Amino acid sequence: MLVKLGRLAAAICIALVACAPPPPQSNGYKAGIRPGMTKAQAEALLGKGTSEAPFTLVTLSAFVMTYPFGQLLLEHGAVVAVTVADDPL
What we know:
The chain is of the alpha+beta class. The chain has one domain (25-89). It has helices at 2-19, 39-46, and strands at 51-57, 60-67, 70-75, 78-84. Strands 1-2-3-4 form a four-stranded antiparallel beta sheet, with no helix packed on it. A hairpin with a 2-residue loop joins β2 and β3. The mean pLDDT is 76.
């Protein structure tokens, strides 16, 4: 009897998971990224970007790391902005 209840519970769980909508695609974005993180911390969380380039605008000298989801802007080796250009939500 207990084995039958265990199998029934497992079948119900499998059916519920199968009917659930798929999770949204993040294209590599992870919510833990935040301003103030170092480049090394950001790369540990997100991996290497698809490209990296310096960015200069008047008195601002920064570094842009591009990812499939968007970009990170780093100034003095720390994240100052995160753009999410490909947000499925």
